[in-house]
Design goal:
1% strand; Cytochrome Bc1 Complex, Chain D, domain 2; binds heme C; 2 domains
């Protein structure tokens, strides 16, 4: 380990990196704009996507977008309304660092502390599953940035599935969930947090009908209504409306409050902390045109599928990063965007995950196929988690360096791979190790223990995972 560090706030003339750094570092705002739409897959998803994108821009500029989202928030009209919303909501203290834009909020579900607090209760409450055995928190653990450490999670036990159905994909972390233009690994139809929770709650979605929480009737609402704390929380949040919609809306508000911008990297950008020289060199590899990582994992949230209050248009992309050959996907439980679009050319395309909190979110990839050899059971053990991430991320960078894992294993690269970005490239082993150190610096340990995101009623038997 190198002992000296690179810092913005305490310039050390002796450090060779110090001089060029200020010029190199883009501000958060410009980083948010920096990703290149030329490399996104919008045009390949649906033929009308480009036209729709142009329409979004036109409507927003012309101020013609409809002004309030419908009960059904899971569609583009709702997103458009959200984008156009702008005013109407009372101001909310996001507690974001300077220069970080706030997430977009639908005009019919303004952020309020009461809604966030209600959502926090619901997120941890097993009353939201058919048999009171699981909550959202059962697959989204705070100490893992709301991922769960498993390859793929299982839903509640039910007829035919005594140990629960195995989800086709790995549970995602929820850090900065409020900024995603599209939710989940590969579903372009899930636009809003208000709509997404229908999938785990009621098994509603285009492709994934597995039972997660398995709610079937209104019983869970009766349980909430018979609890004094909930009656008070619903009163403060939604004028006492204890309904399926306010449950989903409160969960969305809580998840929008899961902002995470306090990593070593963030403190470095703000001039309040330092990066190791290795991590700083890795930052340059990440943003360089040899490794090309930033094209898909760029911007303030380290993914090219972000939306925030300074966004000019709704942009999203799905990519095939060369993990498997097209033939290998025949035997996989998910084929990426193809599951939804039924287009062969969408095989193996997924949303590029945000690389924030990467030390907490192993196993990696949509199928959780990459992990270290002995993953630590205790995610709060920073040294052990970093060692695990270092090992697993080295494997991942080696995959990219070989032009994708399929290519590395001598398999043909998928037809949907963008060959200008996913192709063998040459960096030294020490540059690879630097890149891994940079990725590790994107982890915000305070997020994993923030008290306002923790279980609000840990002593209540129904609350927890
Ligand atoms: C059985 C485990 C399980 C439970 C329970 C569960 N989730 Fe998830 N969650 C997942 C998995 C797996 C994914 C990835 C889904 C996919 O790609 O189809 C996911 C994805 C998400 C996403 C998308 C994140 C992103 O980056 O796009 C959100 C938001 C989310 N879950 C919220 C919730 C909420 C809210 C609840 C409770 C109502 C919940 N989850 C319950 C396993 C679970
Ligand atoms: C063409 C777009 C693209 C490029 C370029 C790219 N990635 Fe990715 N990356 C993806 C996609 C898509 C996934 C998810 C793939 C999957 O799960 O099948 C991913 C997944 C990852 C993951 C796993 C994250 C997780 O939470 O599971 C890491 C780490 C990663 N990429 C790092 C990098 C690095 C480092 C580079 C540069 C060497 C890079 N990526 C270049 C698109 C890209």
């Amino acid at each position: 380990m190198e002992s000296s560090t690179v810092s913005l706030s305490q310039p050390s003339a002796s450090h060779p990196l110090q001089i060029e750094r200020r010029a190199l570092l883009p501000s958060f705002a410009s980083m948010a704009r920096s990703h290149s739409p030329d490399h996104n897959g919008v045009g390949e998803i649906r033929p009308l996507a480009a036209i729709r994108r142009a329409l979004y821009i036109f409507l927003i500029v012309a101020g013609l977008a409809p002004g309030g989202c419908k009960e059904d928030s899971g569609n583009d009209v709702a997103l458009l309304a959200a984008l156009a919303a702008g005013g109407g909501c009372p101001s909310y203290d996001w507690n974001l660092p300077p220069g970080v834009p706030a997430p977009v909020v639908p005009s019919d579900n303004c952020m309020t502390p009461a809604r966030v607090e209600l959502g926090r209760h619901l997120f941890y409450d097993k009353a939201l599953s058919r048999d009171e055995s699981m909550s959202c928190a059962s697959c989204h653990f705070q100490e893992r940035a709301f991922a769960d450490g498993k390859t793929r999670p299982r839903g509640i036990a039910h007829a035919g599935f005594p140990t629960g159905e195995l989800h086709p994909r790995n549970a995602q972390h929820l850090s900065n969930a409020g900024y995603h233009t599209k939710l989940t690994w590969n579903n372009p139809l899930l636009d809003t947090l208000e709509g997404q929770s229908r999938v785990p709650l009621f098994s509603e979605s285009g492709d994934n009908s597995i039972v997660e929480l398995g709610l079937q009737d209104q019983q869970y609402l009766n349980k909430l209504a018979s609890d004094d704390t909930y009656r008070q929380l619903f009163q403060q949040a939604y004028d006492g409306d204890i309904s399926e919609q306010s449950v989903r809306f409160a969960l969305a508000s809580f998840q929008r409050s899961m902002t995470s911008f306090d990593s070593d990297y963030d403190r470095f950008i703000k001039g309040q902390g330092s990066l190791s020289p290795a991590a700083y060199r890795g930052f340059e590899v990440f943003n360089g045109e040899v490794a090309e990582c930033f094209h898909c994992h760029g911007g303030f949230n380290f993914t090219d599928t972000s939306l925030h209050t300074n966004s000019g248009a709704v942009e999203f992309a799905f990519h095939n990063n060369g993990l498997y050959s097209d033939a290998e996907y025949n035997s996989k439980p998910t084929k990426g965007l193809q599951d939804i679009s039924n287009q062969a050319l969408d095989r193996g395309k997924f949303r590029a995950p945000s690389l924030r909190n990467i030390v907490l979110t192993m196993p990696y990839f949509h199928d959780g196929s990459v992990n270290c050899s002995s993953p630590p059971a205790d995610a709060t053990n920073r040294t052990a988690m970093e060692a695990c991430a270092r090992e697993a991320l080295t494997v991942i960078v080696d995959m990219y360096r070989a032009g994708g894992d399929a290519a590395k294993r001598g398999q043909p690269t998928g037809a949907a791979v963008d060959a200008s970005l996913i192709r063998p490239f040459s960096i030294t082993d020490s540059q690879r190790d630097d890149l891994v150190e940079f990725l590790i610096s994107l982890t915000d340990w305070s997020f994993a223990s923030r008290s306002d995101l923790a279980n609000p009623r840990p002593s209540h038997s129904r609350f927890g995972r």
